[in-house]
Amino acid sequence: MSASPSPSRPGETHSIFIRSLMVLPRILSAETPGQNELHPAAVSLKLFPRGGFSSSIKHDRLNPDTLSYFDLSEEISSLINSNDTNSFASVHDLLSGIQTRIVLNIQKQQCSNPSNPAGLDSERTPPPDTHVDYNLTIDFSNLISLAKQLTVSRTSTIQLHTQIHIQQISIYTIIGILPHERTKKQSVLVSLMLSNCNTLPLDIQALTHSVYETVSQSSYQTVEALADAIATHTLAFQNNQVTNSINNVTVTVEKPQAVSYASSSIRKLPSAHLNKPFEPTGSRELCRTIQPTGYPDTSNYLYP
Length: 304
What we know:
The chain is α+β, with helices and mostly antiparallel strands. The protein folds into two domains: 16-135, 2-Layer Sandwich (GTP Cyclohydrolase I, domain 2); 157-295, GTP cyclohydrolase I, C-terminal domain/NADPH-dependent 7-cyano-7-deazaguanine reductase, N-terminal domain (GTP Cyclohydrolase I, domain 2). The chain contains five helices and twelve strands. The strands form two sheets. Strands 1, 4, 5, 6, 7, 8, 9, 10, 11 and 12 form a ten-stranded mixed β-sheet that branches. Helix 4 (204-216) packs antiparallel against helix 5 (223-236). Pfam families: FolB (PF02152).
């Protein structure tokens, strides 16, 4: 329970936070069709009752203005761990399943309509109003073989979108302006923070592999140009769909061998938008941020 304002909801003073609930979901393998595999994951859930906890605080008991985090945790665990054969088609399917259980459990605890959950399913958008906002995040450490970690998030305050963070895709490529850098590949770490429309779920594995292949075959002198090329490639990724499902992307490129005694040299291009001219601003530093004008960075909305 938190009494300080949340970074994702300015001015919010009451929240309930379930941090890193360890689960072991079965997710269909992208590399072996028809097979499902166990993938360790950590589920975090932050809830914001809009009316606060005044009654529960006053009477020192669980009144309808708050929620039992134990019941919510049990609801999530039972969905994932109740059946050894239960599997999910994708991380999007897993997110939708957990969202449904969260809403049903909140309704049950509030006694607003506990006996009639009919009509609520993972495809219904938006779910019935429970007067509770939430941020749902799932972290995977080994779901994507090419990346260090995958984080997927959804929030009740921004409908129809999933935030996807693919962290540190390790790639060897030609990058740099020095003579020896033009002949020998070196490691770069590429991270992508993107917003994906829920109605067109993104094939995260396919995007990661596509970025990996594109960067490994590239030859750039500056990290800035490489990061911009990755942003353009990501936004143009079709995902076997007629319509692009990626709304915006933030690209971070780390070059570990760039500066002696420093962990890495980083270039970050936040919130690159399709069909939006790139207008960089910033100063020359080891860690440089390039911010397109006209678009606020909304990545904090999904991360409490």
